[in-house]
């Protein structure tokens, strides 16, 4: 019963009494962040599989594994947030279709199945090979995964390639739909001025792609370093171009969003200005805007000057890290910021995350670390870095 | 062993068999978790309805005459006791706001019983009173506004509930099935009036029900019952002689945040333009 008593958030101005118990905290901050990484890394994979950008080949399969690893843990922060996680299945069994949340289970399940199939098809040749090479439990595992078919021929190759492409095409819609929908969860609420915006789904989506490219860059470089393999500079540069492009898109959208609020200057705009000057100033101006602008200039320099080798690697890595932080800050600024702005539009609340507890900083960090563990496991089971001869 | 890909093949049959067993196991898992869930549910049953009550024959309505409210906060206290609401300053099914225009100011100062100054004046979060901060101030205009659930015609909270645990009854009250609520708090976010609260002890959302367990037995809501000045008016809109029907007939009323498109069912008299 002790935990029944919440620590009320401090406030200034006038806020409704119930608002001092802030409903959504850290778990709902990392939920869209993780979902964004899913959508973003899948986008990179589709650039290779659908749009035929062959420079992304070295990371294409790794991108799929990354997407799946994060997707498997998307429900975790949500479950930890629920008051009754054991009733979570009700969302799928008895969905209330007017709710933006009701579709989550279906979207998520659909996407997991889709990415799993996509991965299976792109690894089929390898799985068949491993099933014949390996013994013990791993051999049994791969033999089970062959689903009884060991044939590798020109026919099966075209067949697999056809499926990979078809699934990737559906996957683009799926991954982007999934994340656009997360933006809709926030953007469709008329009760909160900071959320209720038509641009919200688009902003979520584009920033998701930015974060997904960034995490792939960072992981690719780290793993190359760890495995002592050379970095494919063409691929890295391609990722840098892609990051640059989507970053510009994201910055423009976010600027337009804020400019709209300020220029329209509806009732309570002073409180919004106080919000970005008060509890959110560091998150908005330093981490989100500062990080994005710095990354933009670094990338512009790298691309403009045609920087090569070490400078290129450092420049792109720094930009990617900045953007990973900036997008996380953006999630915080939306989710927490929206609740720090009172529904009265005449008051601000201050949210201080707890260290411990079910939704504390520690639990959130652990949840965020889990997908990386899963990714490690998946790369052990399905090494994405094979000699080119066998890659599809 | 060689299978052909596109023609009939034992592999496909084996695959079908695998899929079938997967479905059976998944089904067993779902039903097992359902049973566990049901056992965990038996805790938070609160709301009862009078036996034989016919909810198609009533249309409840609530009126607030803000010009009468004296800010005694008996309503807040009665509500907390009647409905077992958490005894702290972050959980209220109803509350009262104080608006004070100081001389020469165009905007009012607003506070409610959860304001630190008022908590200090009452001595604890479990007792409610407005402090005397304006005793020596030069005041132009001051008034109180009671707030509670508006039982909207188009409730955003009902719209966003992912499992349909909250619903609007035919007699016009928005209720929550505490045995079905998953505790996601999306409804808390969606309510423009901030009337929804989260019950940490039971892990479910809570809200004002106009004391549904009382009104279905012919009683008034607790807050209406204790109000010493009849600032809160309740009744059946289907009955032309009920207090609420008279109140609506005799007054020009308005509702809170009409621009939200929620069509509230709490009707106010004596609101100021600055009331939020």
Features:
heterodimer; A: 392 residues; mainly alpha; Formate dehydrogenase/DMSO reductase fold; two-stranded antiparallel sheet; 13 helices; 2 strands; B: 276 residues; alpha+beta; Alpha-Beta Plaits; 2 domains; three-stranded mixed beta sheet; three-stranded antiparallel beta sheet; 10 strands; globular; disordered N terminus
3D structure, described in words:
The complex is a heterodimer of chains A (392) and B (276). Chain A has a single domain, classed as Formate dehydrogenase/DMSO reductase domain (Formate dehydrogenase/DMSO reductase fold, Up-down Bundle). Chain A has 13 helices and two strands. In chain A, strands 1-2 form a two-stranded antiparallel ribbon. The N and C termini of chain A lie far apart (57 Å). The model of chain A is unreliable at 388-392 (pLDDT under 50). With 392 residues, chain A is mainly alpha-helical. In chain A, helix 2 crosses helix 13 (361-381). Chain B is globular and about 85 Å long. Chain B is 28% helix and 17% strand. With 276 residues, chain B is α+β, with helices and mostly antiparallel strands. The model of chain B is unreliable at 1-9 and 37-45 (pLDDT under 50). Chain B has eight helices and ten strands. Chain B has helices at residues 10-41, 74-83, 116-122, 156-160, 186-190, 212-215, 222-226, 243-250, and strands spanning 60-65, 95-102, 109-112, 139-147, 166-168, 174-176, 197-199, 204-206, 232-236, 266-269. At the A-B interface, helix 4 and helix 7 of A face helix 1, strand 3, helix 4, helix 5 and strand 7 of B.
Protein structure class of chain B = alpha+beta
> Most extensive interface, residues per chain?
A-B, 57 and 70 residues
Oligomer: heterodimer
Number of separate domains of chain A: 1
Secondary-structure element order of chain A, N to C: EHHHHHHHHHHHHEH
Q: What is the fold named in CATH at topology level of the largest domain in chain B?
A: Alpha-Beta Plaits
Helix content of chain A: 55-70%
Architecture per CATH nomenclature, i.e. the level-2 architecture of chain A:
Up-down Bundle
Number of DSSP helices of chain B?
A: 8
Q: Percent helix among the residues of chain B?
A: 25-40%
The fraction of residues assigned to DSSP E strands of chain B is 15-25%
N-to-C CA distance of chain B: 75 Å
Q: What would you say the CATH architecture of the largest domain in chain B is?
A: 2-Layer Sandwich
By CATH, the topology of chain A is Formate dehydrogenase/DMSO reductase fold
Most strands sheet of chain B = 3 strands, mixed
> What is the rounded Rg of chain A?
22 Å
Structural shape of chain B: globular
CATH class of the largest domain in chain B: Alpha Beta
């Amino acid at each position: 019963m002790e935990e029944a008593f919440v620590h009320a958030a401090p406030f200034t101005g006038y806020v409704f009494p119930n608002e001092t118990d802030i409903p959504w905290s850290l778990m709902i901050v990392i939920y869209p962040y993780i979902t964004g990484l899913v959508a973003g890394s899948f986008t990179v994979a589709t650039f290779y599989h659908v749009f035929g950008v062959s420079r992304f080949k070295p990371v294409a399969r790794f991108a799929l594994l990354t997407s799946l690893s994060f997707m498997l843990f998307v429900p975790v922060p949500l479950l930890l947030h629920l008051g009754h996680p054991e009733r979570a299945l009700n969302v799928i069994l008895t969905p209330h279709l007017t709710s933006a949340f009701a579709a989550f289970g279906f979207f998520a399940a659909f996407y997991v199945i889709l990415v799993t199939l996509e991965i299976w098809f792109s690894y089929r040749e390898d799985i068949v090979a491993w099933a014949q090479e390996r013994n013990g439990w791993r051999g049994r595992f791969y033999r089970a995964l062959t689903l009884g078919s060991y044939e590798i021929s020109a026919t099966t190759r075209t067949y697999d390639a056809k499926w990979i492409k078809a699934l990737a095409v559906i996957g683009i819609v799926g991954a982007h739909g999934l994340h656009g929908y997360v933006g809709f969860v926030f953007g469709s609420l008329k009760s909160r001025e900071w959320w209720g915006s038509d641009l919200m789904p688009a902003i979520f989506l584009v920033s998701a792609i930015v974060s997904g490219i960034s995490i792939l860059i960072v992981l690719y470089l780290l793993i190359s370093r760890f495995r002592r393999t050379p970095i494919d500079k063409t691929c890295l540069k391609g990722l840098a171009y892609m990051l640059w492009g989507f970053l510009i898109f994201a910055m423009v959208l976010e600027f337009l969003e804020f400019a709209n609020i300020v220029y329209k200057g509806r009732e309570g705009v002073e409180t919004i200005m106080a919000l970005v000057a008060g509890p959110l100033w560091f998150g908005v101006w330093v981490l989100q805007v500062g990080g994005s602008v710095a990354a933009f200039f670094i990338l512009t320099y790298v691309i403009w000057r045609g920087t090569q080798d070490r400078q290129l690697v450092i420049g792109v890595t720094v930009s990617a890290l900045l953007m990973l932080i900036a997008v996380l800050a953006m999630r915080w600024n939306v989710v927490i910021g929206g609740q720090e702005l009172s529904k009265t539009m005449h008051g601000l609340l201050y949210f201080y995350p707890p260290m411990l507890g079910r939704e504390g900083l520690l639990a959130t960090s652990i949840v965020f670390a889990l997908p990386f563990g899963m990714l490690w496991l998946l790369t052990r089971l399905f090494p994405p870095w094979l000699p080119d001869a066998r890659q599809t | 062993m060689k299978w052909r890909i596109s023609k009939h093949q034992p592999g496909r049959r084996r695959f079908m068999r695998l899929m079938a067993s997967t479905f059976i196991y998944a089904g067993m898992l779902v039903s097992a978790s359902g049973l566990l869930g049901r056992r965990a549910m038996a805790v938070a049953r609160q709301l009862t309805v009078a036996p034989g009550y016919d909810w198609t024959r009533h249309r409840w309505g609530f009126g607030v005459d803000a010009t009468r409210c004296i800010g005694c906060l008996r309503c807040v206290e009665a509500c907390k006791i009647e409905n077992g609401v958490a005894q702290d300053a972050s959980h209220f099914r109803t509350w009262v706001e104080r608006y004070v225009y100081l001389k020469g100011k165009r905007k009012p100062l607003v506070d409610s019983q959860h304001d630190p100054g008022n908590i200090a004046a009452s001595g604890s979060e479990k007792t409610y009173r407005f402090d005397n901060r304006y005793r020596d101030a030069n005041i132009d205009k001051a008034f109180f506004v009671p707030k509670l659930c508006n039982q909207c015609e188009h409730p955003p909270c009902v719209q966003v509930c992912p499992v349909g645990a909250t619903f609007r009854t035919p007699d016009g009250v928005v209720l929550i099935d505490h045995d079905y609520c998953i505790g996601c708090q999306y409804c808390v976010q969606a309510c423009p009036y901030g009337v929804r609260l989260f019950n940490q002890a039971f892990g479910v959302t809570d809200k004002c029900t106009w004391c549904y367990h009382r009104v279905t037995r012919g009683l008034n809501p607790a807050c209406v019952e204790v109000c010493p000045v009849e600032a809160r008016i309740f009744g059946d809109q289907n009955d032309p002689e009920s207090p609420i029907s008279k109140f609506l007939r005799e007054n020009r009323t308005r509702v809170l945040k009409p621009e939200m498109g929620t069509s509230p069912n709490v009707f106010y008299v004596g609101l100021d333009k600055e009331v939020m």
